[in-house]
Specification:
The protein has 180 residues and is an alpha/beta fold. The chain is built from seven helices and five strands; from the N terminus they run E-H-E-H-H-E-H-E-H-H-E-H. Helix 2 crosses helix 3 and helix 5 crosses helix 6.
Length: 180
């Protein structure tokens, strides 16, 4: 069986960290990460949405996923941007075209305050506590969070299963077991 797990959730929800912890427990699982590909292609600099970098990164990411799914049966975790219903449907349809037999959504439901703290921490900016810049980043993150959760994950977006995950409240072991 070729199983793909697609991460779904806003920036800062803990998707990538959670996936890396799963890979430590189950190293035979393949992990393909959009952000790692963007860093590989363009460095760790911010890529403007109008630059086309995200489209190039998406193309390379999907080529890698296709290469993996065309080989032996496996479980693959795809950690990528899936902001709304249409984007999730486009990704799951491509995965089916590549031979995915089962597609599971790992829907990250991390609480909003944790997401904001993680997003600001990950940005690497060392803002004073009451700075305007920190408030702007927090506002952007909260808007992103609310956008994600206003577009719920549904089975009719191409998923066979949906697992709700709060990486700050659950242990990894049940998720490592579902990868069997």
């Amino acid at each position: 069986m070729r199983q793909v797990i697609l991460t779904v959730g806003p920036q800062g929800a803990g998707k990538t960290t959670f996936c890396h912890e799963i890979i430590k427990l189950r190293p035979e699982v393949v992990l393909v990460e959009r952000d790692a590909i963007l860093n590989e292609l363009f460095g760790d600099s911010w890529t403007d949405p109008y630059s086309g970098a995200h489209y190039v990164g998406f193309k390379v990411m999907m080529e890698r996923v296709e290469d993996h799914l065309r080989t032996d049966p496996l479980t693959l975790i795809l950690d990528t941007w899936t902001g709304d219903e249409d984007e999730r449907w486009r990704v799951t349809r491509r995965l089916r075209g590549f031979g995915a037999d089962k597609i599971v959504a790992w829907y990250f439901v991390t609480d909003e305050d944790t997401v904001v703290r993680q997003f600001i921490k990950r940005s690497g900016s060392d803002y004073p506590e009451n700075s305007v810049a920190k408030d702007i980043e927090a506002h952007y993150c909260r808007r992103n969070y609310q956008f994600y959760h206003s577009h719920p994950v549904e089975l009719d977006q191409g998923f066979d299963e949906i697992e709700l995950i709060d990486p700050h409240q659950l242990t990894l072991f049940p998720y490592a077991d579902i990868l069997l």
